[in-house]
Amino acid sequence: MIDFHCHLDLYPNARRLVNQVAAKNRFTLVVTTSPRAWQATSRVFAGHSNIKVALGLHPEIVAQKEAERGLLMSCVSEAEFIGEVGLDGSVQHRHTRALQESILKAVLAECERCGGRILSVHSRNAAGPVLDCIEQYCRVSIPVLHWFSGTLEETRRAVAMGCWFSVGPAMLRGAKGRRILEELPKEKVLPETDGPFARNGSSPFMPWEAMTIVRDVAIAWNMTHASVNEQLDQNLMRLLNTLI
Ligand code: MN
User: Fold this and answer.
1) How far is the CA of 197 from the centre of ligand 1 (A)?
2) CA–CA gap between residue 112 and residue 136 (Å, rounded)
3) If both were cysteines, with which of 67, 84, 98, 141 could 116 make a disulfide (CB 3.0 to 4.6 Å apart)?
């Protein structure tokens, strides 16, 4: 099992859950919403080599967390993974777009300065501007577009730029997400849940449920479940070996 984007620190019973996740999942990327949360979560989740905690500043809360901007920049050099970062163009977050963009560009520039990082990137209602930033800054870094929901044209642009994608069961619930999946190169896709925000009815998706995408992926790519599983495992290994 792989979950390349979850907010494990935000589940109600996170401390207990982490042992279960470490046992069940081959690899879990825990994204954080602020650099202080990254520091605290890294301490709490230390000791599990298959759980990595990514340094983030979520675009939806840049205004509240602006004071942590300096901390974010100074932590990039010691962080193995970056996320959740990105832009959100939804109506309720549009007023902070200038700040979001300034922070994203600064993070991307710092990642390059540090030799490149793997990033989990948010792009809701802002696919075009996120791709512009990636195009402008990312040379060695590897952006993984989480729950991508752009147009087909934007999807093709992201693919042409060499972006990776993390895809979850919530994204594949709709026809649009499944259509996007058909456009994605098999070797650039990883499973995610985005739990506990992404929910399965009344309960959040659990980090070991990201692999429930296999059924839809097998249909979209006309592959067997076993070969999809193998492909996703290989993708993870290739990505993790890229920056070593
Ligand atoms: Mn998220």
Assistant:
1) 7
2) 11
3) 141
